[in-house]
Fold these 2 entries.
Entry 1:
Amino acid sequence: MTALIDLLRSRLTTLLPSELKSSELRHLLTPVGHPMLLCQRRAMMIVDRVRLFAFLFAVLTPLWSIIDLLVFDTPLWARLAGFRLLACLAFTWLLLFYRPSGNLFDAYRAIAILFAIPTVFYIASHTLLGSYQLAQFSAVVGAGYAFLPFVLMAGLTIFPLTLVESLVLGMLLLMAQALAGYLSWATLNWPSFAGAFWLLILIAGVASLAGMSQLAFMIALVRQAIRDPLTGIFSRGSGEEILRLQWDSAQRTGSPLALAFIDLDHFKAINDNYGHEAGDAVLRDAARSLVATLRGSDSLVRWGGEEFLLIMPDTDLQQAHRALARLAGNGLGVRPDGQPLTASIGLSERLADVAEDYRQLLEIADQRMYQAKSGGRNRLHGHAEYTMGQPVAAVLEG
């Protein structure tokens, strides 16, 4: 049984885009556990495309009234024009007043509003047209209103969505189609309705695959853009963005936020005596050792050269010391001569240090790291409430 599961997994892996790692397959299925920067970029792209979609509908929705005027009686045209005007105003509001914030729930709300507007318009117009006896060309134009759910379902393909997100939105559109059929029960052509419903399900499946494909390439691109190519951890640019986001979150919730600035001791001597390849190997080993101590919410950043920044959200000074105790217990690796690799660490915390912004919090940790270096290296320098300027092992054992 295990062999069969492994075979199926390997076959499914071959269907993924070549840029996507097999371990990232779960990110295509559900938004749970997505990296913070992926969530932010995906949220901004969704809102941007919602606004693009809203612009298109805001322009085209009222223009169709010209066609309605040519084929429908004035009372029917006036009521349809009223529906179109309301829909146009709603699309215009979405376009003008909804801005990307990087928050995924805001993106969900934007896409929900976008699809709710034409869905309500479809149900209202479908019910209204069902109460009129249409003939010849007016019947053909009236039948064209029934294609709106297909347009909406196809519109899902422009968004980078997980399978769960696509299925939820697809189900809502299918439910709207079913509701429209129920409201026109007496005059419904069941064979035609069943065929259209089945076609809508097929389009939903294709839209789900298209959304997952977009998301797969976005995952690969974001990973390449935010990772340091040597160590595989976050690069400085993405680290600054993560720090800003974590600071904003800590400000909203009043929670602590700790930073540890880690500088490898005497690293220049490794490059001078053993070459840059040996230095690169030491950096990779140190990064792996640091990553092994992290919690799921922590972020490790290569700040530059042999400097690392450890971002610890929801972590006060005492918890940060425990986290650094795990780091010291695991060790950072060894130097090419077999000696243990050590580091000078500066620690700061948002609440204890009364930092005004994330830049000041970073500056405090940076200054304390230099104090640890000038105090003899292999030291942790933190807030005065705790031991400071002592060797790392002594601080953490104490």
Entry 2:
Amino acid sequence: MLKGFHHVAVICSDYPRSKAFYTDVLGFTVIDENYREARQSYKCDLALPDGSQIELFSFPDAPKRPSRPEAQGLRHLAFKVDALDEVIHQLTSKGVECEPVRTDEYTQKRFTFFQDPDGLPLELYEL
């Protein structure tokens, strides 16, 4: 039986910039980092305190992700937070722009979106 997500894989265009974003800005911890010479690619395993992970990859000449208008495939990645306004303040103080806060019409929970350095849509969802 499925028990939850182990990780989400993200391919970035600028590995040092994205690694800094996910560690310094979002607070992920590096579990393991490897350069794979045969692929000219980095693979970095990053974790949050609850054990959820992102695998950050770099591949030379990877095509850009179509995101707007919405395309088929993964729509966005949502992070759960306890205090939405506090996390928004932390992100904006580090230069990350967040969209206006909205309320989910079904759950009445508050949320907002922001982007990683490659424009990947990321969401903050208040518990």
